[in-house]
Amino acid sequence: MELAVFQLSQEIIHCLSPSGNTQTIVLDEGLATHFGMEYYAACGYTHYKITPPNYLNALGLVNHYYKLIRK
Predict the structure, then answer these.
(1) Do 29 and 43 contact (CB within 8 A), yes or no?
(2) What is the pLDDT of residues 27-62, one digit of tens each?
(3) Alpha-carbon distance 69 to 3, whole Å?
(4) Structural domain for 27, as ranges
(5) Helices assigned H by DSSP within the chain
(6) What distance in Å separates the CA atoms of residue 35 and residue 39, rounded to the nearest whole number?
(7) Are 33 and 62 within 8 A, CB to CB?
(8) Cα 41 to Cα 21: distance, rounded to the nearest angstrom
(9) How far apart are CA 70 and CA 47, in angstroms?
(10) What radius of gyration do the chain's Cα atoms show?
(11) In total, how many domains does the chain have?
């Protein structure tokens, strides 16, 4: 169930900016992963390990932008 919560919350973000194919923009992937982790935590789950390198890289960029915005 935990995996389904993360995956569904991530895919919802992709529905907001459909690309029409299997390729996604790095920013979209990062935002989707970030939201997936936030929603996962909001549901009471404690830890989800992101392993695909493209998700990790995209998430790292989004987290970097968030830090710049909050300064």
Answers:
(1) no
(2) 999 999 999 999 999 999 988 888 889 999 999 999
(3) 30
(4) 2-70
(5) 2-16, 26-42, 53-70
(6) 6
(7) yes
(8) 29
(9) 24
(10) 12
(11) 1
